Amino acid sequence: MLEYSMLYPKSTASRRAVPLNGMWKFRLDENGTGRQQGWTDGIPGADWIPVPASFQDFYTDKDTREFTGDVWYETDAFVPSEWEGGQVLVRFGAATHRAEVYVNGIKVTEHEGGFLPFLADVTEIVRYNAHNKLIVKVNNELTETNIPCGQTITLENGKKMSKPYFDFFNYSGLQRAVYLMSVPTEAIFDFDLTYELEGIEGDYAKTAKIAYHVKTNGGHLVKLALFDENGEEAASAEGKDGILEVRNARLWQVRNAYLYRLVVQILDDSLVLDEYEQEIGIRTVEVKGTDILLNGKPVYLRGFGKHEDSDIVGRGFNIGVMKRDFELMKWIGANSFRTSHYPYAEEIYQMADREGFLVIDEVAAVGLFASMMNFMEASTGKQTAFFEKETTPILLKAHLKAIEEMVARDKNHPCVIAWSLLNEPETTNEAAVPYFKEVFEKARELDPQHRPRTFALVMNSTPGACKCYQFSDIIALNRYFGWYVSGGYEIVNAQAMFRKEMDSWRALNLNKPFIFTEYGADTLASEHKLPSVMWSQEYQKEYLEMTHSIFDSYDFVKGEQIWNFADFQTWEGILRVNGNKKGVFTRQRQPKDVAYLLKQRWESLPLDFKAGGVALPEGRSHNG
Ligand code: GCB
């Protein structure tokens, strides 16, 4: 059972978590015959590669960078004799997109889906006080039966190639931390928290009631204690279900986070059988009318759609890049981001908890739309049906499983304020409706906090054509008027079209908050031109000024997350110049000119901008 626990690996009084990060043996399986050749017992002639990291950008040849198929990883894990008698587990932060795990030659688990953790129970298999061989076969092929969607083609020379239905490079491998863990036999498996606040004044609530539910695999007493940042006990309770009541609770707020430390124990009299601890934030989140409320107060989101993407390590978790990204987001006055287009490494949510950023947590359901080119064609009215394939039920199953794993993993992070359940799916065909219904119901059923659910609407999901927006608690629009549509000197037409669409949303009177989860213009950091042309830094600025004036004149628009935080790698082609260049920052995390414009705007936008529905007059925008 514990192998299904999503708790982040930690050492406590009863647990040990040993990171296995470092240099691992690595080999491409060019013919797909590794298993027949006995690589499950040891990889012959292997190279060495860092874990965590994407494998693609270390090497100097194209065949490795573009490699599609199986890749093999191997390391040694020493299991101490003190661990005997408990449970021993191996935990992968993620393996992209699917993996089979072998310990001492024996298959211990497999997992499908490249952006969420999984564990293998190896208690019966490991040798104690000895080295154990850990081997992982990772496969990075894209299909239409798992998320993210794409295709794998075979070239004339027999080599396979990934064809994503999405706009980011198919980085893969062991991109997140791997841990060896020791957990007691009777153990804490999971816990849920829901919050009720009374008498909110300033940074505090007179009383916070935290209803909890703890899951263990045994019958011994469960005890909880909550400590404030000074280490003082703020509340305690006993039993698997109950309420922690905190007097004068300091609230977790936007860019003003306060974290309590929750300690959960299983006790046999005074003996601690298991102990787990996690930092939590006391806050509520809900949608009311057109407002997004945090602790009952309206918030206006400003920030980014991001990617896990950087030089050399690709999509590999890099603690230094994470730190720099948060510093830049603070500098520019952002307060939120979306984990486009997949759940990120857990360490990023821990940091967002600490820094008080609001996170829209997105599952890897991207590419549910027959191709990137189809995205362009969609603007011309082309039929783009996607959910009526024979294979759709298989895709739905994988999608629901990923939502289950994401919610289980992330539900106790105060930073997570909403779930994004799809990015730019096909929504103009009736067949999408039952699919959406299942996806949205699943998220509601799984999340004890009933956080708002959303999905990002592609350009052709207009009020007239989209059959699925009613499922969203927050309507999230990805709009590129002035870039994919009527860019450059034609921007006046783009503006008119944008207004026309916004007017028709307004006419529907949905009484829900709208946010922009994408808008942006590709911009080369090297290009300046007066007067502007598309791709120049000057045009990115003009594009933003036009876009902001639209945002500011609709009272129901409650957030803006520009695409993208930084330039990022995509597949190669005529639409991209060695990657997507819509970054406000370069891939090396230096500002483009537009960063200063955004800083001025965001630093001066009140947190409750347009609360109660007051917009600026048409044509005016808030530029600080
Ligand atoms: C989108 C996608 C995003 C792309 C972006 C673009 O709509 O959601 O993944 O990168 O457009 O730049 O075209």
C-alpha Rg (nearest Å): 25 Å
Could you name the ranges where pLDDT drops below 50 across 5 or more consecutive residues?
A: none
Instruction: Give the number of DSSP strands.
Output: 30
| First-residue to last-residue Cα separation | 54 Å
Bound molecules: (2S,3S,4S,5R)-3,4,5-trihydroxy-6-oxo-oxane-2-carboxylic acid
Beta strand %? 25-35%
Q: What global shape is seen?
A: globular
Mean of pLDDT: 96
Task: Order the strands across the largest sheet as they lie in space.
Answer: 23-24-25-26-27-28-29-30
Helix content: 10-25%
Structural summary, described in words:
There is one protein chain. The protein is an alpha/beta fold. Helices cover 18% and strands 32% of the residues. It has nine helices and 30 strands. The protein has helices at 62-65, 319-332, 346-355, 372-378, 392-410, 432-446, 491-508, 537-552, 594-604; strands spanning 16-19, 22-29, 47-51, 70-79, 87-92, 98-103, 106-112, 118-121, 130-139, 150-154, 160-164, 178-183, 188-201, 204-216, 221-227, 233-238, 241-250, 260-268, 271-280, 285-288, 291-294, 297-298, 301-305, 336-338, 358-362, 416-423, 453-457, 475-478, 514-518, 557-563. An eight-stranded parallel beta barrel has the order 23-24-25-26-27-28-29-30. The protein has a six-stranded antiparallel beta sheet with strand order 3-2-4-9-6-7, with no helix packed on it. A four-stranded antiparallel beta sheet has the order 1-12-5-8, with no helix packed on it. The longest helix is centred in the middle third of the chain and has 19 residues, at 392-410. The protein is globular. The termini are far apart. The relative contact order is 0.10. Residues 166-167, 341, 423-424, 478, 518, 563, 580, 582 line the site of (2S,3S,4S,5R)-3,4,5-trihydroxy-6-oxo-oxane-2-carboxylic acid.
